[in-house]
Design brief:
Length: 254
């Protein structure tokens, strides 16, 4: 790949080296690299990684098993990319779609209802969710770490380039603002602390006992749905235009 010269000079260099001309973006260490802003299409490979669940045969997993695999595998796949780039909202949305479908439906052609909004599912358990990773919040927390390193006078070519190109003699933030982002008693930056701060919400006390109950995890998820009024009952199916008249299938009551 040759940059900064005319097309004629590029061809001359390629012929002299007996190689083909490459074009940007290219992939380096599995991530796209370009001299321009990366488009949503350049990150399409991240949204396709949801197909990795196919060998797990999610049809035979309980809701607790799918929850564990969603968090331990599907949510961790884009972590490296999120530590280098601030991804597009639509890319996060596409990843959420594949994670949500696996959690609620498993693997297979049979469609199932997504009973709870995904943004709520991704809240920490203390705030009423299931604790599935919010990729957008984690992306922000990981990127802020680079900002923190700059203000800690980090050394390296990457730091010199960013200071020369974007900062100069100016500050993007005040030092006081960045110190408040550390959130740790030690004064060190913590990605987990930033993620927790971004995820803050109203504490849901009536669900606290659900997670302490000594029952199988799949029963805890069932109780979580029940207390939120999000079991696939007749009235909920009607709201989703499903095959129901709104009455209970057992008692016939509405």
């Amino acid at each position: 790949m040759v940059t900064g010269v005319t097309e004629e000079e590029k061809c001359w260099v390629a012929e002299g080296l007996n190689c083909k001309l490459g074009t940007l973006p290219i992939k380096y260490l599995g991530l796209p690299v370009s001299d321009k802003t990366l488009s949503v299409a350049d990150w399409h490979f991240l949204t396709e990684e949801g197909h990795r669940v196919d060998p797990w045969q999610g049809l035979f997993l309980t809701s607790a098993g799918r929850l564990e695999l969603t968090n331990s595998c599907l949510s961790s796949l884009p972590m490296f990319a999120m530590g280098i780039y601030l991804l597009h909202d639509s890319t996060h949305g596409a990843m959420n779609k594949s994670r949500s479908r696996f959690f609620w439906e498993g693997v297979g052609n049979k469609r199932k209802y997504h009973m709870v909004d995904w943004a709520y599912v991704c809240k920490p358990k203390a705030f009423g969710g299931l604790g599935i990773l919010n990729t957008k919040f984690m992306n922000i927390a990981l990127m802020l770490k680079w900002v923190w390193k700059l203000y800690q006078n980090a050394d390296g070519l990457w730091a010199d380039l960013i200071r020369a190109k974007y900062l100069g003699n100016n500050d993007l933030f005040s030092l006081a603002d960045l110190v408040s982002l550390s959130l740790e008693a030690s004064g060190e930056y913590s990605t987990n602390s930033i993620y927790h701060r971004l995820s803050l919400g109203a504490v849901v006390t009536h669900l606290k006992d659900v997670w302490k109950t000594r029952v199988p995890p799949k029963i805890k998820i069932f109780l979580w749905q029940m207390l939120r009024g999000r079991l696939p009952s007749g009235d909920q199916l009607v709201k989703r235009h499903g095959p129901s008249d709104g009455n209970c299938a057992l008692s016939g009551d509405r």
